[in-house]
Amino acid sequence: MISTQAIVSDLNDIPREWVFEHYLLLTERLCGQCIKMKSAFNTDDKVPSMCVYPDSKGLYKFKDFSSGYGGDGLNLVMYLYNLNGRGNASFRIIDDYNLYISNNTYIPIEYKPQGKYIVSDYEIRHWSTLDQIYWKSFKLSSKILEEHNVHPLSFYNMIKENEGQVLDTITIKTNFIYGFFRKNGSLYKIYTPKTKDYKFIKVNDYIQGFEQLEYKSKYLVITSSLKDLMCLKKLNIKGIETIAPDSENSIIPENFVKDLTKKYKSIMVLFDNDKAGIESAKKYNSKYGFKYINLNLAKDLSDSIKDYGIEKVKEVLFPLLKESL
């Protein structure tokens, strides 16, 4: 029998860590660390694509790159059980927690939020034969890479600080490290395509391709990445320009989109040909009314060019673009 003195009726009395530990069946207690795991929403997930992490206030959040879902514990339970609204998720959590504590003793672990790793240093190097082989597989030349300020790096350092005290430092030194820069020379992203984890290290917010827009075309295509953006330009389809957000899972801000709709006759979305890409494209359609294109060849535009060649991709893509205009 449950003691009425132990019954919890307020969501704020339930440890936020417990929500993630319980519903994700974690085998370790959350005490300030980040967890990377396979998607709780996509059973076809072959590699870990879901992150559980404390935000800047020490409150746990999650981001599932496979499904595009993200948010706090209420969002997690909403998506897991297909509940209508945060209120219903709150009731579910309270009921489940009361059932849990009737047979268990749960003692929250107190911890002090730690700082995040940030890029502290890097070194630009000269292009190598390996770089040339990698980028040419996507039919991308040094000219278009220079136009978009992509430079190879010999290494980069990351530092973790808390209240001015250095907690840890990491140096990454390997082949195939590339820095993405703005025109003013500031680094906004690091790309390491040959690694399974952390291919992208975000340094600053930036809408990729924005500085290269000329506003001389009727149409704008939003792609999923800078690499896809450059590949789309390589197709040399007249009448279109292109930009890319930080990632498929980030939405370009409304005020920025409002300005773009004044400059272009139509805006379309071309994201990856997988569940996450299609779901992200649907978000743009729902929020802004943009039509989206599904190029059903390889996973994304750049891999389609690599696997099928420019002419085949143009043959398939051009009718899809024309249909969406």
Word description of this protein:
The chain is of the alpha+beta class and 325 residues long. The chain has three domains: 11-103, DNA Primase, Chain A; 114-206, no CATH class; 207-325, 3-Layer(aba) Sandwich (Dna Topoisomerase Vi A Subunit, Chain: A, domain 2), CATH 3.40.1360.10. It is 32% helix and 22% strand. The strands form three sheets. Strands 5, 6, 7, 8, 9 and 10 form a six-stranded antiparallel sheet that branches. The chain has a four-stranded antiparallel sheet with strand order 1-2-3-4, covered by helices on one side. Strand 9 (187-191) and strand 10 form a beta hairpin. Helix 2 (73-81) crosses helix 3. The N and C termini lie far apart (64 Å). The model is unreliable at 1-5 (pLDDT under 50).
Top keywords for this entry?
Dna Topoisomerase Vi A Subunit, Chain: A, domain 2, 32% helix, disordered N terminus, DNA Primase, Chain A, single chain, 325 residues, alpha+beta, six-stranded antiparallel sheet
Q: What is the CATH C level class of the largest domain, in words?
A: Alpha Beta
Judged by helices, strands and strand pairing, the structural class is: alpha+beta
Task: State the helix count.
Answer: 10
Proportion of residues in helical segments: 25-40%
Spatial extent as radius of gyration: 23 Å
- CATH architecture classification name of the largest domain: 3-Layer(aba) Sandwich
Low-confidence stretches: 1-5
Give the N-terminus to C-terminus distance in angstroms.
Answer: 64 Å
Count structural domains. Answer: 3
Order of helices and strands: HEEEEHHEHHEEEEEEHEHEHEHH
Overall mean pLDDT: 88
β-strand percent reads: 15-25%
Report the principal-axis shape: globular
Largest sheet: 6 strands, antiparallel
CATH topology of the largest domain: Dna Topoisomerase Vi A Subunit, Chain: A, domain 2
Please provide the count of β strands: 14
